[in-house]
Amino acid sequence: MKETNLIVMDLRQFLMCLSLCTAFALSKPTEKKDRVHHEPQLSDKVHNDAQSFDYDHDAFLGAEEAKTFDQLTPEESKERLGMIVDKVDTDKDGFVMEGELKSWIKHAQKKYIYDNVENQWQELDVNQDGLISDEYRIGSYGIHLDDPDPVDEFNYQQVMVRDKRRFQMANKDGDLIATKEEFTAFLHPEEYDYMKDVIVQETMEDIDKNSDGFIDLEEYIGDMYSHNGKADEPEWVKTEREQFVEFRDKNHDGKMDKEETKDWILPSDYDHAEAEARHLVYESDQNKDGKLTKEEIVDKYDLFVGSQATDFGEALVRHDEF
């Protein structure tokens, strides 16, 4: 009995992890729910290189890593930065391209995601072969795989169908055996362009209560707010009604289709990582050939890490799979 309770607790934790990007369909919020996936700022520092490179340090290392800066000599900073450059250069051609720098920055900014993935991976890759197939289903659902009835507040069969579909979409090569990168896309689809359609589909399934393939005004409001017998709506609800009519429902047919839903929850925000990567390349590219050598980056070490450098040991371990 004790083992069964532990399995159920582990399963609930796993499902809560999945709910980071999609809300439970069974929940009925009483306060505003934000389903929009906003691109976060790279730093809360002012981006003004004339004053300091603090913003660039946060962007390149991640704000938490940047906080751990310790007193190092310029020589030590350059040596450790050179080690990081080897990690940023993923194709090992001796150059850091803007795209590689952008990917590194995004990775550094998403430490909590990769920590979460690593924890799940350690638990689910039971045979330790560096791949996950049905292990995620067995490790996550266990005794509930053959149970058609809901347990407590969860309908495991419904969740398993959704997870199977998402797992298949995350698995790019179609072999249904996930690498760590594909498993990351499964757990955090909002981080991958090719997974955006599944985010839209799951969101519509949550909100579209009459299952007609659209989200009408009342379904849209009902996902954010429950009247609970109250006659008067808060001012923000009235504003959301106006937003739906004026901006969400672009063709003004009274409902949102898939494309309109996608525009709502996945807006085309300014890409901060791309802009910062472009900035770092521009400032460091001495011969203006559009790519950076290790020497060019190390020569501008103060832009990337400053005269104080972080605990790179942890950064290198964390990015070892990058």
Write the layout of secondary structure elements.
Layout: H1 2-18, H2 54-61, H3 63-67, E1 70-71, H4 74-88, H5 98-109, H6 111-124, H7 135-141, H8 156-170, H9 180-187, H10 196-207, E2 215-216, H11 217-224, H12 235-248, E3 255-256, H13 258-265, H14 272-284, H15 294-299, H16 301-304, E4 308-309, H17 312-318
Antiparallel strand pairs: 1-4, 2-3
Helix pairs in contact: 5-14, 6-9, 8-9, 10-13, 11-12
Count of helical regions: 17
The rough form would be described as: globular
The order of strands across the largest sheet is 1-4
Please tell me the overall pLDDT: 80
User: How many strands, what sense, and barrel or not for the largest sheet?
Assistant: 2 strands, antiparallel
Radius of gyration: 23 Å
* DSSP strand content: under 5%
Alpha carbon gap, first and last residue? 41 Å
Structural class: mainly alpha
Q: Work out the number of β strands.
A: 4
The helix/strand series, from N terminus to C terminus, equals: HHHEHHHHHHHEHHEHHHHEH
As residue ranges, the low-confidence spans are 1-30, 308-322
Helical amount among residues, as a percent range? 40-55%
InterPro entries: EF-hand-dom_pair (IPR011992), EF_Hand_1_Ca_BS (IPR018247), EF_hand_dom (IPR002048)
Keywords: Calcium, Endoplasmic reticulum, Golgi apparatus, Membrane, Metal-binding, Repeat, Sarcoplasmic reticulum, Secreted, Signal
GO molecular function: calcium ion binding
Subcellular location: Endoplasmic reticulum membrane; Golgi apparatus; Melanosome; Sarcoplasmic reticulum lumen
